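Bench notes, afternoon.
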Amino acid sequence: MVTLRSGSGSGRSSSSKRSNGIPSRGFLPWPIKGAIGMEYRDRVIKCAECGSEFVFSSGEQFFYAEKGFKNEPKRCRTCKAKRSDGAPTSGARSPRTITQTVCSQCGKETTVPFKLTQGRPVYCRDCFQQRRATGA
């Protein structure tokens, strides 16, 4: 457990805990930005994904506190790397579906960038633009 003194108060430490397991004041399980007497120690944490134990170093804790991160890491480096490699980025898209079909107006063969729906007409580029211009 990391021991910290809060920034205000009489300077005395109290190790009493509330009924929910959170320390009332004095001893804090996680360093708080701006606290006086911060002390970081390596901590062993169990990975939420694979269950192996990994070290949350004092340097990493300092970095987390400096950046204002509230939560400690939940996954070991291996699981974190697997997760980031396999997961698509937020801007990634699935490949576009290209379908070959026949224009409903002129009968010319064309390709469209979507999957066809039954009962709906499909137009080639020329016919589509012509219909758009006339407002039909």
